[in-house]
């Protein structure tokens, strides 16, 4: 008869393996990382997380094949071509006249996620300058920042509030993989936008004054590129915005008091000056026809420059995007400060993962050897090793289930938890082998008094780490606690049972 | 075979006699060790601007750049001197460490820590190397000094809270004053002795390193719990006299601690190229485990023996 304790262990182990899903390593295809919102792909029903196996009846088994096929697609403006993608066993067909608006990656081998220090990427911890935010303000900040990053086209990003032991709120931004060089600018820019005529603010960024901003199509884009007199090139851009009735009225009230310019009789005496973070970025002439008129359609112009045309074009596009973002999302009522910024090389991360795996195997080996030397019993040693292995597997299964990013401290936590597990099993073995007349049941009960005591001290020791230091070391505490809890609830009782069987 | 009486002159029995005679003397070493560690830490505190430990940039603020050396050859000493000169011009202090492959002795990566901001330090390194630092060849970590200070204070609070919580657990478990205090003293020493050692060797601690001290609180007391439980044997379910019970606990405890030490050592001796935070956690655990051997089996065992003798627990 197999005890229910061993059954529970077996069932939990199977569930853990399902949660980690190692068989994904044998799947072929590519996984969709992101689908641009409002794109034809999005409308056709493609979503991130789906597995693409075919494009236009061509089999796609990995990223290389996908890239090869997609790079051979040629698109001509205004001549849409039919594209058929097979994803998750369904066909998605749409017409497209420009490159695909989706990004893909190889199917992850397991559902385990690695943290930034192991997969590479950037992490920023942000705090508003000079003020403390309450919970609802930090929520707003998360929403605005998320929107801003989305407008910039950055995907695979996690933005969340974190609170530390002192009750201070921070914003934690994590970007996996390669990191944009302008992340620092993007975050630290408060993005206060104002349109002023003279000294009077006519409108400012955000939905209240500017309900709509053109981002593509005929109303937005690069006008042209020109050579600079001093060398290099510059390109101009233009996009339309829609003002709200109130903002348009305000604009009309201000312009009604202006006179016609003496130098440029076609325009009014004052310009519409656009300020970004109190820096003048653009000065627009106001046509004399607009004097006192309520108009909700305004065209915003600007430029970018560079050493050659390509650089100037890139700069102009970036400037346009930045301005559009700020007009859409509005400004934050405070300046942000990056208090921590880490960019971790993906190359280094890959090496870390390999070395950690190597270390894990060696630790397993060494512990097995020590135990075998001490007890000289194959069955006993195997039981300890299998229990240890089960604990790691279940901990990883739980990590995959709660989508926890395993970073270096998390893995150190698992190893520490493994160590505690082995210790507990040694206690059980030694108590059961003690030369005393009481029953095995009593002996194991004695062992559990020690084990439960040790469990509570570890629990007490790790608990404060959940909050200290903005939770950046939470992984260490979390995996240690999962590992020891799994031990006390599932593997230790099963181990005691297995030990009883071995003794019989 | 099953029934070994204390008056049988076996090697084990001789050990017990020896322990009976010398346990008070044995307690002297750990007490002296803790005392010197505390004195050293006090001395360190006053000589290091009221700091109890050396902080790395994650706790003091500044930039840490990890350079992957790869296939190119960098003369570490030359690189170090040039970078130090450049930083001195700006009044920034800089410290360098190198990681070499244990097998081949090849330079694998260089870790530069500086009080400068990341742009300044990056610029200096790029001008020496003659190529740009990219996502492929380097990792950059920057912390504001104010944040580092905040982190450090919080981790210290976490350490304090963890210690108090652990003490409560111990008191609830044993419900007797002296044995509980003995366990807490042992845990306290398991922290201060490794701390004094890392301070002595000038190891700069990271946030992860301090987290390791928290772990140590949980990790080191399990052998103490084992010893105290077996020695006191409140339910009288165990066989053998006090010395036999202490010796039995000793056999189990030594195996526990040594497997833990064996599990931690490969991170230093066999596998290179592990994340720095990871290595530091393991270094502190290893030191703590060694300290634990002394404090559990010389100090705590002595106190328990003394206590049991006084209380007539045999």
What does the secondary structure layout of this molecule look like, with pairings?
The complex is a heterodimer of chains A (504) and B (314).
Chain A: H1 4-20, E1 30-35, H2 40-44, E2 51-55, E3 58-59, H3 63-71, E4 81-87, E5 90-96, E6 102-106, E7 113-114, H4 116-119, E8 121-128, H5 135-151, E9 157-163, E10 169-176, H6 183-188, E11 193-197, E12 200-204, E13 212-213, E14 220-227, E15 233-242, H7 245-256, E16 272-276, E17 279-284, E18 297-306, H8 309-329, E19 336-344, H9 346-375, H10 378-401, E20 405-406, H11 408-433, H12 440-462, H13 474-503
Helix pairs in contact in A: 1-10, 1-13, 5-8, 9-10, 10-11, 10-13, 11-12, 11-13, 12-13
Chain B: H1 11-47, H2 57-60, E1 62-68, H3 76-89, E2 94-100, E3 107-114, H4 118-129, E4 138-143, H5 145-174, H6 177-200, H7 207-232, H8 242-264, H9 266-269, H10 276-311
Antiparallel strand pairs in B: 1-3, 1-4, 2-3
Helix pairs in contact in B: 1-6, 1-10, 3-4, 5-6, 5-7, 6-7, 6-10, 7-8, 7-10, 8-10
């Amino acid at each position: 008869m197999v005890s229910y304790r061993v059954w529970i262990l077996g069932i939990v182990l199977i569930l853990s393996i399902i949660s980690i899903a190692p068989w994904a390593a044998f799947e072929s295809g590519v996984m969709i990382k992101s689908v641009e919102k409002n794109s034809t792909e999005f409308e056709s029903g493609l979503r991130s997380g789906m597995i693409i196996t075919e494009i236009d009846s061509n089999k796609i088994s990995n990223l290389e094949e996908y890239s090869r096929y997609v790079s051979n697609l040629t698109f001509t403006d205004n001549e849409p071509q039919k594209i058929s993608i097979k994803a998750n066993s369904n066909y998605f067909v749409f017409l497209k006249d420009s490159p695909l608006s989706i990004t893909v990656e190889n199917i992850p081998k397991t559902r385990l996620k690695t943290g930034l220090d192991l997969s590479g990427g950037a992490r920023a911890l942000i705090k508003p300058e000079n003020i403390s935010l309450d919970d609802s303000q930090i929520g707003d900040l998360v929403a605005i920042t998320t929107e801003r990053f989305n407008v910039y086209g950055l995907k695979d990003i996690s933005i969340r509030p974190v609170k530390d032991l002192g009750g201070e709120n921070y914003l934690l931004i994590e970007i996996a993989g390669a990191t944009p060089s302008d992340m620092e600018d993007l975050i630290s820019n408060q993005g206060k936008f104002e349109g002023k005529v003279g000294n009077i603010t006519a409108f400012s960024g955000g939905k209240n004054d500017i309900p709509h901003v053109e981002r593509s199509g005929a109303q937005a884009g690069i006008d042209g590129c020109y050579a600079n007199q001093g060398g290099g090139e510059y390109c101009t851009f233009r996009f339309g915005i829609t003002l709200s009735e109130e903002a348009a009225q305000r604009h009309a009230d201000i312009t009604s008091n202006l006179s016609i310019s003496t130098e440029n009789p076609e325009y009014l005496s004052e310009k519409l000056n656009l300020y970004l973070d109190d820096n003048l970025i653009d000065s627009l002439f106001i046509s004399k026809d607009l004097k006192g008129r309520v108009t909700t359609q305004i065209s915003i112009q600007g430029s970018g420059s560079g050493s050659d045309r390509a650089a100037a074009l890139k700069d102009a596009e970036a400037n346009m995007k930045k301005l559009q973002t700020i007009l859409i999302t509005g400004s934050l009522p405070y300046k942000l400060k990056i208090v921590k910024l880490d960019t971790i090389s993906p190359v280094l991360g890959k090496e870390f993962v390999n070395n950690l795996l190597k270390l894990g195997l060696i630790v397993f080996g060494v512990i097995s050897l020590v135990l075998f030397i001490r007890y000289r019993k194959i069955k006993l040693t195997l039981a300890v090793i299998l229990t240890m292995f089960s604990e790691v597997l279940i901990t990883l299964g739980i990590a995959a289930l709660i989508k926890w990013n395993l970073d270096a401290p998390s893995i150190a936590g698992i190893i520490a938890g493994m160590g505690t597990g082995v210790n507990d099993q040694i206690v059980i073995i030694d108590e059961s082998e003690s030369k005393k007349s009481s029953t095995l049941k009593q002996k194991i009960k004695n062992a559990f008094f020690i084990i439960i005591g040790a469990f509570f001290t570890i629990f007490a020791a790790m608990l404060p780490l959940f909050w200290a230091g903005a939770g950046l070391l939470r992984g260490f505490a979390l995996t240690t606690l999962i590992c020891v809890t799994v031990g006390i609830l599932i593997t230790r009782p099963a181990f005691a049972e297995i030990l009883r069987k071995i003794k019989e | 075979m099953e029934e070994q009486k204390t008056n049988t002159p076996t090697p084990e029995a001789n050990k017990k006699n020896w322990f009976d005679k010398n346990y008070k003397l044995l307690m002297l070493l750990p007490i002296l060790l803790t005392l010197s560690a505390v004195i050293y830490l006090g001395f360190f505190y006053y000589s290091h601007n009221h700091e109890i430990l050396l902080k790395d940039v994650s706790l003091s603020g500044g930039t840490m750049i990890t350079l992957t050396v790869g296939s190119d050859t960098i003369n570490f000493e030359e690189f170090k001197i040039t970078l130090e000169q450049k930083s001195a011009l700006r009044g920034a202090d800089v410290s360098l460490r190198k990681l070499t492959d244990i097998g081949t002795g090849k330079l694998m990566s260089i870790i530069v820590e500086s009080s400068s901001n990341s742009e300044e330090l990056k610029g200096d390194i790029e001008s020496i190397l003659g190529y740009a630092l990219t996502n492929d060849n380097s990792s950059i970590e920057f912390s504001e000094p104010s944040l580092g200070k905040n982190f450090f204070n919080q981790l210290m609070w976490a350490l304090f809270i963890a210690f108090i919580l652990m003490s409560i657990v111990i008191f609830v478990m044993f419900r007797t004053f002296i044995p509980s205090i003995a366990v807490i003293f042992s845990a306290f020493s398991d922290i201060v002795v490794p701390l004094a050692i890392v301070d002595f060797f000038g190891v700069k601690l990271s946030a992860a390193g301090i987290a390791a001290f928290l772990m140590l609180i949980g990790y080191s007391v399990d052998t103490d719990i084992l010893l105290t439980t077996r020695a006191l044997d409140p339910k009288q379910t165990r066989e053998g006299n006090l010395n036999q019970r202490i010796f039995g606990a000793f056999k189990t405890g030594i195996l526990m601690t040594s497997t833990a030490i064996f599990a931690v050592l490969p991170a230093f001796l066999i596998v290179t190229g592990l994340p720095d935070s990871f290595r530091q956690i393991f270094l502190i655990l290893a030191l703590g485990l060694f300290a634990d051997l002394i404090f559990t089996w010389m100090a705590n065992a002595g106190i328990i023996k003394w206590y049991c003798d006084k209380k007539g627990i045999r």
